[in-house]
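Sync notes, pocket subgroup
Present: LS, DG
LS reminded everyone that the earlier model was apo-only. Rerun requested with zinc ion included. Inputs:
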Amino acid sequence: MEAVVKDVEESLLKKLRDNPLDYITLNKIGYIYLHSNNLVKSEEVYLKSININPDQFEPYVSLGLIYTITMNLGKSLYYLLKAKLFNSESEELIKSIEEIYSAIKNKYSSLSQEEINNLFNEAMSLLDKEFNQQAIEKLLILLVLIPENDLLIEGLSSALIKNNDYDLSILILNDLINKYNSPLAHYYIGVAYNFLSKPEKSKFYINRSIELKPSLLNPLLSNKISIRKDYEEEYLNECPICKSKDIELNKVFNQSFLSINYNIINPIRQWYLCKECDLIFANPRPTKRASYNYSVELFLDNRNKYNLDKLMLESNAYNDRLNNILKFKKHGKLLDIFSDTGIFLSIALEKDWEVFSVEENDLKSKFIKSIYPEINIQCDINSFSKEKFDVITLWENIERIIDLDFCLKLISKMLKKKGLFAISFHNRNSYISKVISNNEPIWSYPDYVYIYNKKYLVNLFEKYKLRLVDSQIVWRKYMSNTELYFIKD
Ligand SMILES: [Zn+2]
């Protein structure tokens, strides 16, 4: 008998040498190793099979079995639950999962609260170090022991999402909802559905989480401010730029998990896509006044918090931007729109530009004036409408401008012929937006109203006689910025 198995093994291995991506053959080899008790080799082969094709039932079940035998219970549970995604009806599988639950309860039932806390802290520190898989396995064990713990649900959901395990996250959280109706579980199912491009489902679960627990509208403010119901916002039934009515829901986020909204801007942000022009816009959209009030609160909150690393990063970025401008324009009149706290202005002054500024936030403009009294700074772009500039810059704020058409008309009018217009923005098509940051931060700034990609802006600006002459992708700490440079024809 053994000789026959050896022959089969040989012929399968030969087949694999001819086609190393043949995952079905890998599963057969894994099966032979598993049943001849060579667990190490079997594990290796099945893991390779999943690596080649992650959408199959058998290797997950077999790995679950291997880890049950080796008493690696968290890992076992992870792989059995993964298998359930491909065959939720299998009675044998459901029984195996039940057995793991009992084994976990038996093994850990004698743990004191302190020991459970230690296990939890270990898992969270694995998560901090981006060891997501190991963190998930520990957190799955803890979920069996303390299922109603919000921190645990949050940690496990974040780890699964970072691991791109969206379906698994929905499966586990749904199970929790059936048992405990957890608001946080609803919220994270909503997040997972965003990544699966199912915005209507996302909207349902995120709204449900708020109904169950209204304080989820401002978790970062720890309930210091009561929830308001009358956000200043407007509903749009057409694309705000091209006016097409062909618009649809694209993503839904509760932004307050990443950004403080000061209870001014509705943190449940519905992002709509215009199928005609490809713009993504907030709908409902916060009003100009809400956006202004938000920027005041944000400034007051951060006024005395100087983060030297951030200042250095920003100074370097602005220095590079000015060097780019110098490739096209050596000197003259420069208008900076949305000057924020004036770092770019300081660099332009150093290089002997005649500097003008628009900063609509009074607190920020007073702050800039206190450092650079010589700068002509106005709160309304219209104040400069009769002037002509060699260079106009708009760094990192185009996403906040509601009346973009009005603003671009004015910019085009205020630029001298062959004048330069420079912007930077968070590009939703950038590598980091798509892959590394898992798409999330860009969608979670409360006062962003439109989200762009490069092609969109280049096409749009052409209508205002602004022609692209240079573009750069600049990586900063957590985000990449795309910078575009245009010449007025
Ligand atoms: Zn449109």
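DG: The pocket of zinc ion is lined by residues 239, 241-242, 244, 274, 276-277, 279 (CB under 6 Å).
LS: The longest helix spans residues 308-326.
Action: DG to write up.
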